[in-house]
Write a structure and sequence with these properties.
single chain, mainly alpha, about 0% strand
């Protein structure tokens, strides 16, 4: 009996030790909040720095290079500014722009106003672009950020930079920081919010840049799906390239949204 009690006491002490160590001995990891808009000091910014900012957004937050690259999934944009006047005169043009700056801005906000031949959604006759608006969805660029990208495209295209630097960030977002958004309520809303259908076949969308997710739940478990969203380069599906999916969905999504999306995908048998 004495030996039995000694075993119980030792077990309880061991459990208490590990519980205490895990709570107080190991540094706690706190999840980062969803990303906010970078605070821009536009009042003292030169055009040269504004163009550099546009290049940074183009290859970073805007995720433009995920599709506009040498793989040919979307047109290269190094000559977009030079081609603007010709496209404005094209009978297929359906927008309202009147000059290069307005065309580039419109192409980012309403990409279906003009679709470069061969790069439209299948079955639309190049009248509908697969590209989402950069002012919404996962990119969610502010007016100032869009202007910076347009300035970069004008500069890299070798045309005159006509963009005027906004005098204050408050012109775009009130206080210079992106207000916290409301969590989406359904997985379909999450797929739309984060532009998943731009690259994947899922929830009625017919993207082709990434793997077909229409029956992914029959091939992958929840742990794999979760990791694929948080660490998209951890395992690349055969036939697809790395670095094609944004790597920051872990900071863009709320935890509940992530789990709701994982549950939805796991249910697609």
């Amino acid at each position: 009996m004495r030996q039995f009690i000694a075993v119980i006491v030792f077990t309880l002490l061991t459990v208490a030790f590990f519980a205490g160590y895990s709570n107080f001995g190991i540094p706690q990891i706190e999840a980062e909040p969803p990303p906010g808009e970078e605070k821009l000091d536009l009042g003292s910014m030169t055009m040269e720095r504004f163009v550099v900012l546009g290049e940074k957004i183009f290859g970073g937050k805007g995720t433009c290079t995920l599709c506009h690259n040498e793989l040919g999934r979307a047109p290269m944009l190094d000559a977009a500014a030079r081609a603007a006047s010709r496209r404005l005169a094209d009978s297929r043009y359906q927008g309202k722009a009147t000059n290069v700056e307005e065309y580039l801005t419109e192409s980012m906000i309403r990409p279906s106003a003009y679709v470069v031949p061969g790069f439209g959604k299948k079955g639309t006759g190049d009248t509908v672009s697969p590209m989402p608006s950069t002012s919404t969805g996962s990119a969610r660029l502010s007016d100032a950020e869009i202007k910076a990208v347009v300035a970069y495209l004008q500069d890299s295209g070798g045309v005159e930079v006509t963009v005027e630097i906004p005098s204050q960030a408050s012109e775009d977002s009130g206080d210079g920081e992106q207000a916290g958004r409301e969590p989406v309520k359904t997985a379909e809303e999450a797929i739309s919010e984060f532009d998943c259908g731009t690259c994947h076949k899922v929830a009625g969308a017919d993207g082709e840049v990434g793997p077909d997710l229409s029956g992914i739940g029959g091939r992958r478990d929840k742990a794999h799906l979760r990791k694929s969203i948080l660490e998209p380069n951890a395992e690349i599906t055969k036939g697809f390239e790395p670095d094609q999916m944004p790597a920051d969905y872990g900071t863009q999504m709320y935890a509940g949204e992530l789990e709701m999306l994982v549950d939805y995908l796991a249910g697609l048998k």
